[in-house]
Amino acid sequence: MGEAVFLTLIALHVLAATAWVGGALFFVFAVVPASRAAPGAGIPDALGRAFRPVAYVALGTLIVTGPLLLMLLGISPGMLLQGRFWADPFGITLGLKLVMVVLVLALTAWHDAVLGPRAHRAGEARATRIVGRAIGLLSVAILLAGLLLAQGL
Q1: 3-state DSSP: the chain helix, strand, coil percent, rounded to 5?
Q2: Global pTM?
């Protein structure tokens, strides 16, 4: 039973990461260039509104499955309070990943709640593009950190 739960959580985590990172990269490499080719068409706004529920479900899934996977790997909350855990290569990688996750969550909230509406009203999307690129790059870095963690590093 434990292995089935673990594999299910991994599958959900990978699927959610695929949706999140794939969506972020799609926006950076497809939506933004398309919006430059057809300014005023509302492409980023329309696609952003359509993708936002998928993105938020993916983020929520990642936030729930990540800690559960750590627990199933035998990493208890008490271990996370020990300094030696964070000095180990696995702990260092996990710490970097968590910092990047917090940054992505903060940037996403800022992008969706502040920058996006402001850009829509003003017709200027430069700041949203910069933050979107940062979210995309950080998302890829988080994915790579996850791969390192899966290898025990």
Answers
A1: 90, 0, 10
A2: 0.86
